[in-house]
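Why run this: before we spend reagent on co-expression, it is cheaper to look at a predicted model of the complex and decide which construct boundaries make sense. The entries below are exactly what would go into the expression plan.
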Amino acid sequence: MHLLRAASRLQDFYILSIRASLGIFRRPFYLRETIEQMDYAGSGSFFIVFLVSLFIGMALSLQISAELSALGLKMYTGRIVGMAIIREIGPVAIALSFAGRVGSGITSEIGSMTLGHQVDIMRVHGINPIKKLVTPRVISALVMLPVLTVIGDAISILGGYYISVFVSHQSSSFYWSQIKEIMDFKNILSGIVKPFIFGYLIACVSCYMGLSTSGGAEGLRKSTTAAVVISTILIIVSDFVLTRILFYFLGMSI
Amino acid sequence: MIEFRNVTIAYNDHVVLNNVSFTADFFEKIAILGGSGGGKTTILRLILGLVRPDEGNIFINGQDITVLSESQLRQPRMKFSIVFQEGALFDSKNVRENVAFCLREYSNYSEEEIERRVRDLLKILGIEEAIDLMPEELSGGMQRRVAIARSLAGCEPKMMLYDEATTGLDPLTAANICALINELSSGEPPQRRGFILVTHKVLDAARVADRYLYLENGTIAFDGDIESLKKTDDPELREFINELYVAKRV
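The model came back. Tokens follow.
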């Protein structure tokens, strides 16, 4: 019985994700809602992304330069920090912050609308809640998470620069030359593709959990927690899968 | 016409409605009575196709709505409008935007026309001065009035569905809402706009309804007018409508 229910929920999730994606290309376009969501998800998340990225960049730089200096290779700190940030840590860390802030916000907002019958009111008056509520949030996550990731990567690299140059006393120009070297198509592509997928997953999971909320305040708590937990797991699992796929398509050997 | 034919629905293995059958015309003034969690609101949700029954069929003007997709349900839903308990107003929108919500979504009216219609509706409902207020600034009675205004703004429903429209209101405000319900359903059948009022407040039901359904253990234990309701032999129902006798003595 539980298995059947889980299968049915999974099917509902797929249907919602597909309808929300198709809604991007179909009228009516809820431009105002989309801009509001982009503002909430983008500029509203900037401060948290700034802090997370800065400290991750600095901590990573500290760890790597300490390890490399034991081998006499600390001048390569910039290369390793940049590579790790752009390809892996930046997209994942910012997606996790995004899921915590934006994903939980989406679930609690849509969940309270579901419990307050506002979603029912939309349906009664012929307004498609997926089009009105889910699609703008999916578009917002698809646009804003990659933008935040690019900004976060830059801040992390600056954090790494501060530690490498002012704490570890490495050459500033060599740090930047290393960063320039790793800014090739393959690395940038791996860093840009991931946030699109993560953003899509976070938005769909959060909206689905919000729309399927039931059981009052306790149900809302459960939905919000589940949205963040499921998004976190999906981000980490899909990161591995995407890395493997990108390695294959970009011809990168292990 | 609404027809429930052997409708059964359960939530998480708890049977809410069990083999329920009844018919109702759009012009009827019906009160559905019953205890909390007895399936009263579920009947309204089933009429609107917001939930689907596990078994049985629901016909609106002869069309089985249990087999319709979400987009196909739009037509039968246009025959109704619903006022939920607490109003279900959009918290982030003021009264004007709440009432204009459906007009903006589905009409080609200019902003001036929408403003005029919203003001007219609020005037009829006696809350024109609240046009710029947010839902949190409204009293319970005003919230219900705004919800009624919104339900009438977008369409011309043949039947209103009220979900606990007077619950949580003081007696005076509840009486005002009942008067408003009567006013909106004035006229003679079959042109009259009818309603289904779901409530556990028997006195409020008696103020507005002509026909009473009583739900007990997921089935309709009573279906009749006020006179037969008062003469019922069902001890549980007699207990439930005790309010009527007390009010009479007072």
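Chain B touches chain A at residues 45, 48, 50, 70-71, 74, 77-78, 80-82, 84-86, 88-91, 101-102, 105-106, 150, 154-155 (CB under 8 Å). Chain B has a mean pLDDT of 88. Bring this page to Monday's planning discussion.
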